[in-house]
Write a structure and sequence with these properties.
Order of helices and strands: EHEHHHEEEEEHEEHEHHHHEEEEHEEEHH
Radius of gyration: 23 Å
Distance between the termini: 11 Å
CATH superfamily of the largest domain: FAD/NAD(P)-binding domain
Number of helices: 13
Bound molecules: flavin-adenine dinucleotide
CATH topology of the largest domain: FAD/NAD(P)-binding domain
Structural class: alpha/beta
Amino acid sequence: MTLHAVRGPKQTVVIVGGGLSGLLCALQVRKLCPEARVLVIERSLRRGPGLAYGEFASGHVLNVPSHRLATGSEPSFRDWLAANADRYELAQALAEANGRIDDVFAPRSAFGDFLEETAQRSIQSNVFDWIQAEAIGFLPPPRRGVVLVDGTELDAAAVILATGNESPAPLGMESLERSQRHIANPWASGALDKIAPDDDVILVGTGLTAVDVTLALRRAGHTASITAVSRRGLLPRKHKLCPPSKPFIMDGGPASPAELLVRVRREVTRAMEAGASWQGVIDTIRPVARDIWQSWTDAHKRSFLRHLRSWWDVYRHRMAPRIADGLSALLAEGQLNVVAGRITAAAEEGPLMALDVSERGGVRRRLHAHHVINCTGPATDVRALPSPIITDGLDHGYIRRDPLRLGIETSACAAIAEDGVASDWLFAIGPLTRPEFWETTAVPEILAQGRALAERLSAADTTRGYGI
Ligand SMILES: Cc1cc2nc3c(=O)[nH]c(=O)nc-3n(C[C@H](O)[C@H](O)[C@H](O)COP(=O)(O)OP(=O)(O)OC[C@H]3O[C@@H](n4cnc5c(N)ncnc54)[C@H](O)[C@@H]3O)c2cc1C
């Protein structure tokens, strides 16, 4: 594909979504395309925190230490946190990190505040512009750009979708979904407010969202039972601050998920025998995860998603030590229970919701609770998302869903259109690009994507008189 530079001052790069991905991308594009006008469109009031570090972040803890949140901006999060430590309750976090600010698992809201301040500073110094609105569709060709919810049309040389994490996908059980006892989106404002401290709760999912919800309930004084159900019943593992292990996957990644499993197990055994930790081994896979993923066929990827994904998720997306300890205490006290099984039916029984669960091993049981909360994490099937701009892009063929339903198809972040051609004006970064990169939700990967995309937009090519 021919690339064209975004150079002229009249050329606008529109970024849809002002969470972590949109913000980091805006900073990178502006750095590498200094004359371009960068315009971020964000529907919510806060600039920068997005879903993960915004309102829902309150009371939660980042699942990586502060030095791993290098956003490429000045000051770094680590330095910002050191300067603003008195704004947050950091005593326990600092004790856990032996007093080292680098190793602190900070409150998620602190990172949200940092992102917001970074955004505000950049807007004030005209690094980029910001519009608070929802982008709901694309301009019809030959124009390029987006339409906002109030009908405003914004022409652009390039549009970058950074729409991030969507609410969880429906559980596919009508009787459950139409019940007042079902909470479809735990991230919605006030979603957990109607739960009384003595209401029994069932969480569908046992990943980090379930952990967040459990701890949010506990903080709100919840005393009744919380039962978390997922097919394998796996909870995220505990983080450990440890030196990184020596990389063991360099040239020639594992040819299949089965080979990956064998190699990881071998390496973990070796590490543990040498007195090191498995966490260090898993962390060495991160930088090469994208290459491994891209070298696999669709059949391999499908097999990974079916057999290994839930294991990968719990070893890769770990809990901060004090969060893991808090959860262990709830398990030991019996307030939290984990059930491995498949929910086969749901029905209201008086004031309760009854869920039939077919446990691994074949045992069937009926669980009862006052509330059932969907904790399955962000939805990824773009055809089912309640996002007007994504639906418009799909309907007009500017983007297409990947066969594994993980997001949209891209080639080096360029959206692949319905006809299979990579776009020269429409791009995506962050969670939407999971089909291409797999690892695409954490700061290092998002920053790398933003940089690479900014480099592409700045690539010198004067063969066309406009945009990229
Ligand atoms: C609850 C949660 C906790 C997490 N915690 C961690 C963590 O501790 N550590 C870690 O490394 N990763 C964490 N992650 C991973 C997280 O996905 C990434 O770190 C990152 O926040 C993704 O940023 P994003 O900007 O792509 O998405 P989002 O944060 O979802 O931001 C997308 C933004 O786009 C806006 N938007 C969407 N559509 C439109 C539209 N049409 N018009 C205008 N605006 C629009 C939304 O309002 C939103 O603000 C967490 C994820 C979740 C969901």
